[in-house]
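Researcher: Structure prediction, please.
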Amino acid sequence: MHGRALVLGGGGPVGGAWMTGVLAGLAEAGVDLDRADVIIGTSAGAIFGARLATGEAPQESYERQVTRADKVELRVTTVQTMRFLWAALGSRDPQRSVERLGRAALGARTGPESELLDAVGTLLRGARDWPDRALRIAAVDATTGALETFDADSKVPLLEAVAASCAVPLVSPPVTAAGRRWIDGGSRTTANLHLAADHHHILAVAPIPTAVGPHPSAQQQAAQLAAQGAEITLLTPDRAARHAMGRDLTADARRPAAARAGHAQATALAHAVHAVWRDGG
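Model: Predicted structure follows.
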């Protein structure tokens, strides 16, 4: 184990807004996020991880949530939610659960991939090339259920990699990349902390700590990494943040309050985070 990893999990538009508040609050309190040797992003974390890696300041991402300058349109119907739950909860075996979800996603009637690519492209704010800074983007193979990561060496364009990580099953179409179809990187576990297992110091921000289905939670993964010797700080929404976020993580009107709650939470915790992040080798 060596170095530092910044892990950013999935959480929909509202969870993503909370995450930007956390990152901005930490940065303003002196936590140097640029010290991360790698950024690992899943779903919403893939979007904001890519923006951070390509040079956008945490404060700018935060302000764009508070002012709702980022345009986010993610509508989820009751039927889509029920079909998602039926697929994800249809087996107690994690592998079979994600395979069911992948099959359901491949068979669902959704909009064209181009719509998702256009939406993600807008959120990436013009970034199209992989940054020099190390960035890993998680996605799940819709056919096999395998979790894999894209990076600058994967020969998959940044836009397609991030879109694949954001392809919510039964809501968005699976994304085609490298000759395969991909669904949301949080389909197995929402933050994929285990992808940072080769790093000694890990800062993880997980808007949704637990995935739907028989999958490990962010807390379980953090405990496992700690048992293996990693110094890990896991930030999840506190009570005030959960209240601000509400239950519908696609509710656009909730984003400003969620972002502010994340900022307040991070400001309160920054001293402890800074001590570990600064003192790490």
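Model: The mean pLDDT is 93.
Researcher: Thanks, that helps.
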